[in-house]
Amino acid sequence: MHYQIARAVRITSTLILSAGLLNACGGSDAPTTPGVTTPPAGDPTQPPPVQVGALIVTVTGLTPGTSADVVVTGPNGFSRALSNTGVVVSLVPGRYTVVARAVRGTDGRFAATSAEQSVDVAAGSTAASVTVAYAALPTQVDIDVGGLPQGVDGAVNVTSPSGEELMVKATRRIAAAPAGRWRLAASVVRNGGYSYTPTPTFRDTTVLSGDTLRLPVQYAISSGAMAIAVLGLPSTVEPTVLVTGPNGFTRTIRGTTTITDLAPGAYVVTTSTVSVAPYTYAPSAITQPVTVTASLVATPVTVTFAAQIGRATLTFSGLPTGIFPSFSIASSGFSRTVVGTSAGTVDSTSW
Length: 351
Description:
By secondary structure, the protein is mainly β. Helices cover 7% and strands 51% of the residues. The protein is rod-shaped and about 175 Å long. 19% of the residues are buried.
């Protein structure tokens, strides 16, 4: 590139000086000035001397294959577009403006460090020069974390092109981020007895210079709960209630309980008879099918027990009036003595 610029300068100088040399060869005794075309003495038909200059525009910072977008404007409506380093010749002396616009290449977007520059071009063999320095625009990475309850942190791990790992707990913007490969891994968050699953759980992508990479992570409730109410038993009695469900889940509870963080699916609640002297308590249903959905509202289940109480009627006869027998009633864990009545019967409901 330096060779091309030097060669262009030499060519430019030759073009600028050529008019003066030609006049000298024509025998004119008038002194010649570089960059000035002097007509033969005494020739009124020739135009006045024309003075010209040149401008060298050097473009740096772009990756191979990426074209610049540079426009040179100046006196008398002059305008010239350049896509690379070059020399603009035969310029009328004066102030020129060099405007460089952002460009996109295979590696991303680039912008000039100085989007607009002014340069003065003078007549003569020495060309003016200006450098348009491009630089890759910074990349931006936006990580949007949503779907979690207020105050609950996400669990998002982001790996930059350099291998640096960042733990992102909430929506975040990484400004002036490096271009290249970015990886994201999001994990399940558990809070208050419930699970929240992210989408996506993994992403591997590439971003170019000057572009914005958006990495949205949306959490959603992914577990449910079961609120089991045990009714009909004395407060001191603890039943055995077995809960089974998906993925081999099994849990035994001893009373009214809420089971949280359950995987959605079909469950079975199983219980059995409870014996507490002097009664036996039986559940209204030995097994109950229960469907749990992903929700913050627990699925209600009621296990109702009832005492299994029998009824007995004792009938007696043959005794004189006013004489009543007494009976001793005994069973496993039960003993009671009762006295007959004038009706000739004793009913267990009166025990």
